[in-house]
C-alpha cells in the first residue's frame, strides 16, 4: 500500500496548507480592490464528484468533515485574524486568499482517488498526475515569509526549504528539510509572541479543534483497510488484476498500478506510457465494477464505525457548526 500512503500524505499536505490560513507568501498589504474581487471558484472541488466512476458518490464519514466551501469560510476568518495579529507586531503581510489555490479533493477522504484512478477523461490528459493548477496547494505555506514573519505567525523558527550543504536527507512531507523546527523568540517589538504564534491564537479565537478532522480521517483510514480484505472486494480486485493481465499489465491492485505510473519516466505520472497504463487501469475498473463493489463494502464498514463512535461524532459535528458560525461573524 506504498502508493496509498503517498497519496494520503499529499492530500494531508494540501489540507494542512489550507488550514494554516493559506499563508504562503508575504509582501505589501493587499490592494483593496483585489481583496474585494470574488475568488474564482472554477477549480474548486465539488462536494461530490461530478464525473468518472465515482460520480455522485459520498462515503458516510464525509458528513463529519467540512466541505471545501466551509473550510474556505473558516480559513478566510483565520486569515483576517492572523493579519490583524501580525500588524500588532509591526508586520504588514499579504497572506494569500483562501480558495485561490484549491486542492484537487474536497476533503481528506479523497474519494476521486481512494480506490486508485476513477476519471477516464482526466487520465487521458494527465495519466496518474494532476493539472498544475490543482497542485499549487502543495506549495509550502511558509516558504515566502521572512524569518521573523514565520516566527510571529507560527511560534517557531522558519524551517529550511533547501538542503544544507552536504546534506543527503530527503525533503519532508511538510516541504522542508531537517528535524523539528526550533521554538520562536519570546517576543518581537516588545510584545510577547502568542503560543503557537498568530496562527495558534486565531484558531483558539474560533475554537478550532484540529483533533476532530484527525479523528474522522483516522476512522476513514480504518474503514479503507478493513474493507480491503472483504471477500467481495478481494474478488473484484482479482478480476481487475486478471483484466490488466489480459492487457499485458502486471499489477496486484490499483495502488501498484499507480506506483508504476509514477515511477515511469519523469516521475509525475504524465508520460505517454503512464497515460496508457492509466486508461487500461480505469477500463478494467469499469469492466469489473471494482469501485462500485469497494465503495459498497466500505460504506457498510463506515456505518458500523459511525454507530460505534456516534457520541464523539455528534460532538464533532456540533463543533463544526459552531466554528463555522464563529468564522462568519469575523468581519
Structural classification: mainly alpha
Unreliable stretches (pLDDT < 50, length at least 5) are: 1-30, 164-178
Count of helix runs: 12
Give the radius of gyration.
Answer: 21 Å
Main pleated-sheet profile = 2 strands, antiparallel
Helicity, as a percent range:
40-55%
Question: Could you give the order of strands across the largest sheet?
Answer: 1-2
How far apart are the termini? Answer: 45 Å
| Total E-strand runs | 2
Sequence of secondary-structure elements: HHHHHEEHHHHHHH
Q: What is the overall silhouette?
A: globular
The chain-level mean pLDDT equals 85
Q: Which percent range describes the beta-strand content?
A: under 5%
Summary, kept brief:
With 331 residues, the protein is an all-alpha fold.
Walk me through this protein's architecture.
- The chain is mainly α.
- The chain contains 12 helices and 2 strands.
- It has a two-stranded antiparallel ribbon with strand order 1-2.
- 42% of the residues are buried.
- Residues 1-30 and 164-178 have low confidence and may be disordered.
